[in-house]
Amino acid sequence: MKRVTIYILILIGICFLIPIFFTVKFQIEKKIKEEEVPELNVEKYSYSDFGTIRLLHSKTSEVEEIPLDEYIVGVVAAEMPVDYDIEALKAQSVAARTYTIYKLIAGTPHENADICDNSACCQAWISKDARFEKWQDNKQEKWNKLVEAVNETLGEVITYDKKLINAFFHSNSGGMTENVSDVWGGKDLPYLVPVETKGEDAYSQYSSEAVFTKEELLNKLKEKFSDIEINFDEENCIEIKEFTQSGRVKLIRFGNKEMKGTEVRTLLNLRSTNFSIEKNENIVFKVIGYGHGVGMSQTGADALAKQGMKYNEILMHYYTGTEISKLD
Ligand SMILES: [Zn+2]
Question: Domain limits of the chain?
Fold first, then answer.
């Protein structure tokens, strides 16, 4: 009798466990699939899949359709000085192409366009005419150099495990790039981790200062933290609480409020989150680097090119564990 009861209990147990097992398995599979969407495997695409791009001009709200490679030349023209080393311009071309095609596949915040020309939103772009107006001399020669950088890397994109990467880039890393999750939260990406570059201090983007009166500082921080109070007579009224792995400010306290380094950067319009603070009659932010710090540093790319690195080596340096794939 006892044995029969045990068998029945086991049977009931199995009947309950099997559905639970399959439900959990299904949920895990669903999660993996959701993360894989959009499909970024480059083997599924040919270069002709990405013939033209609908570019939103952010100043006029006009949408213009442009052949992809012509668009990339305009991005490189806007994003990098033409007197940079050709290998740096080629690295910028591949990064811009990768970023653009990633957006084409992954979707965009814009309704009737694939991408916009605002660097804070998507990536900068300038027309040939507008670029020529800004250059003083050798205009055609300069433009040809940009076209050469794009043509010599035609169809090339950066991939990790055969999948297109999210190719972020910025102006100057201050010597060390940033972990992607320390800037925008979310999950870490194996190819966007801190890497070091020597030689970025030779560029004007490397260091800057931002000076605020105590009242100015308080008012700017109040835009987001309305109940903030700072007693500037207190020795420790400003205190950096935590640094990111790359040495940027992760968490900082002003008076009674703790905030993220990224929030401070936005509120005070600092060039980066890599800063130290000096308190005298004013509050002085000494800032190193320019930009969010994730992925390729543009001044770093030029520094590495001048040290003899080729564009593919520069890209492998900034996007850890990646390779270049050519879309036919
Ligand atoms: Zn945009």
Answer: 43-168+296-326, 207-288
